[in-house]
Amino acid sequence: MRLTLLRKAIHAIIMGPPGSGKGTVSARIIRDFDMQHLSSGDMLRAEIAEQSTYGTKAKQFIEDGKLVPDALVVELVLSQIQKIPTSTSWLLDGFPRTIEQAETLSTKEKIDCVINLDVPFETIRERLSGRWTHLSSGRVYNDGFNPPKIPGVDDLTGEPLVQRDDDKPETVQKRLETYQLQTAPLLDFYREKGLLHSYSGTKTDEIWPKVKEFLSTTIMPHVNRSRL
Ligand SMILES: Nc1nc2c(ncn2[C@@H]2O[C@H](COP(=O)(O)OP(=O)(O)O)[C@@H](O)[C@H]2O)c(=O)[nH]1
Ligand SMILES: Nc1ncnc2c1ncn2[C@@H]1O[C@H](COP(=O)(O)OP(=O)(O)O)[C@@H](O)[C@H]1O
């Protein structure tokens, strides 16, 4: 019997080092499951493009491969979450990234699961040198893995793609160090709560079926809109 009356909105987090495939896997999740995607990096880049107060404060930290201060990111992300109807499921990508962010989030929202993409740093360094981003949507491409139909142009809008300034090798190295120091400790935070589900590998196409299987069977069989 289907227990449709018990449907509830799911609150999921996707974690992993920069370039581990969070955006790529998130796009597949929202294609196949009825969820709203919230990416802190996309939000910050939109604020920078608008030259807003948030954007102006965040810009230098991002360019330096550092994390943007907790207070700023928390305010930005929580204000976006609050705009989502309570009946809508959401997937947070890139947030939280520090214990302080996770603790603040846990006082405001109940989290159902954390998907962690465990990809070796060597693989990431190679990938990020070939990442092309459509800034306004957050869509990503890669020279070898999923190239755009026309080089340098977004498939859906025809607008130009850019190589993010923070994808330069020296900034990538700094971001990986920042991840190791400030974000990796979050894995234990969520493991202790029994929420962490880690997927290791070097290829998204191998990781994705496992993530999909987990979401379909365990977390949200009721919102799965794909044909398994
Ligand atoms: N070669 C290769 N590139 C991938 C794979 N998965 C994702 N990418 C690319 O790697 C880059 C980083 O992925 P992205 O989803 O942006 O990672 P994020 O920084 O964690 O959100 C992008 O250019 C993707 O197109 C993969 O399995 N192989
Ligand atoms: N939760 C966050 N806390 C602090 N800084 C953040 C957060 N999310 C994004 N940022 C800033 O934005 C940059 C880009 O983030 P993101 O788009 O998630 O890229 P990636 O996953 O490739 O590192 C980060 O390097 C960091 O400076």
Major beta sheet, strand line-up:
2-3-1-4-7
Per CATH, the class of the domain at 11-120 and 183-223 reads: Alpha Beta
Low-confidence region ranges: 1-5
Binned, the helix content reads: 40-55%
CATH superfamily of the domain at 11-120 and 183-223: P-loop containing nucleotide triphosphate hydrolases
- Estimate what percentage of residues fall within beta strands: 5-15%
Describe the structure.
The chain is α/β, with parallel strands linked by helices. It has helices at 22-32, 40-49, 53-63, 70-82, 99-108, 121-128, 169-183, 185-192, 204-219, and strands at residues 11-15, 35-39, 89-93, 113-118, 131-134, 139-142, 196-200. The chain has a domain at 11-120 and 183-223: P-loop containing nucleotide triphosphate hydrolases (Rossmann fold, 3-Layer(aba) Sandwich), CATH 3.40.50. A hairpin with a 4-residue loop joins strand 5 (131-134) and strand 6. Helix 4 packs parallel to helix 5. 34% of the residues are buried. Mean pLDDT is 93; it is low at 1-5. Bound molecules: guanosine-5'-diphosphate and adenosine-5'-diphosphate. Guanosine-5'-diphosphate binds at residues 16, 18-24, 127, 131, 140-142, 144-146, 203-205.
